[in-house]
Amino acid sequence: MSLPLKSSTRSASAETLLPGEFSLSRDDFRRISQMIYADAGINLTEGKAALVYARLAKRLRALRMQAFRDYCDLVASPEGADERQEMLTALTTNVTKFFREPHHFEHLKSRILTPLLQRGGRSGRLRLWSAACSTGQEPYSIALTLLTGWPEAAAADVRILASDIDRTVLATAEAGIYSEDQLDGVNVDMRRKFFEPYAGERARWRINDAVRRMVTFRQLNLLEPFPMQGHFQAIFCRNVVIYFDEPTQQEVWRKFLPRLTPEGALYIGHSERVTGPAAEHVRSDGVSTYRLTGDRIR
């Protein structure tokens, strides 16, 4: 059976990539993928077209738009800056939980915190960074790990920087309010010590003020120059660079290493590995955990 020929008057870029309530053309998808790559380093292939359609169709409905072409025109314009942020929020995957990949928190406690305390570091300085904090479970898990091994940490010179590109998830993280289901992984003793019922609502809990004061939340794009000048004993950047292409991954790893102290640790996702020039300066120190091989690189 012969197939009908495509019309010569219609360009390949105008072909419908996904039909539906809103037609998504290859050109629309190309524009969206180029913008999200420029803004966040996220590498979207056409295999992600269904995900893009499902998440952004909600935005088109909210704006009462009729076509992805019009949406692309909006987010590409100066007037569409706020909606471009909404697009980023919609297309960013924020999967997180308390004490996700628990071996990292055990390593933090036994290989970073314990040696610090043994060296008499109770009056010393400790700086940690959650470099893609999402809705906050990761930096709060870091804080809870410190507090279980060092009850006075909340009153010491301890600071946890929690950053993310997405303003929406940062607002959720800073509020520190979680449902009963989201507290999966937090044991009974931790819940009793560090959480309190939120405004009388059943099955909703808030991190107490002492823990929240240990964490500072900031919007930060990992593709841009890092504004901080200090150094960290631990950096968590987990399950983030898997969305970047290889050159971007290598650049992010390269930028992290000068921000580590000589004894610092870099924690990454279970399906990630440090590649490129940075790989020459780190050694494995456990599952998806790296330490510098020598002095801090610059």
CATH superfamily of the largest domain: Vaccinia Virus protein VP39
Side-by-side strand order of the widest sheet: 8-4-3-9-10-12-11
The assigned CATH architecture of the largest domain is 3-Layer(aba) Sandwich
Instruction: Please report the total strand number as a whole number.
Output: 12
Q: DSSP helix count? A: 10
Q: Ranges with pLDDT <50 over ≥5 residues?
A: 1-10
Shape category = globular
Beta fraction: 15-25%
Distance between the termini: 64 Å
Q: Number of domains in the coordinates?
A: 2
Which CATH top level class of the largest domain fits?
Alpha Beta
The CATH topology of the largest domain is what? Rossmann fold
SSE sequence, one letter per element? EEHHHHHEHEHEHEEHEEHEEE
Helix content: 25-40%
Rg on CA atoms, Å = 22 Å
Largest sheet: 7 strands, mixed
Structural class: alpha/beta
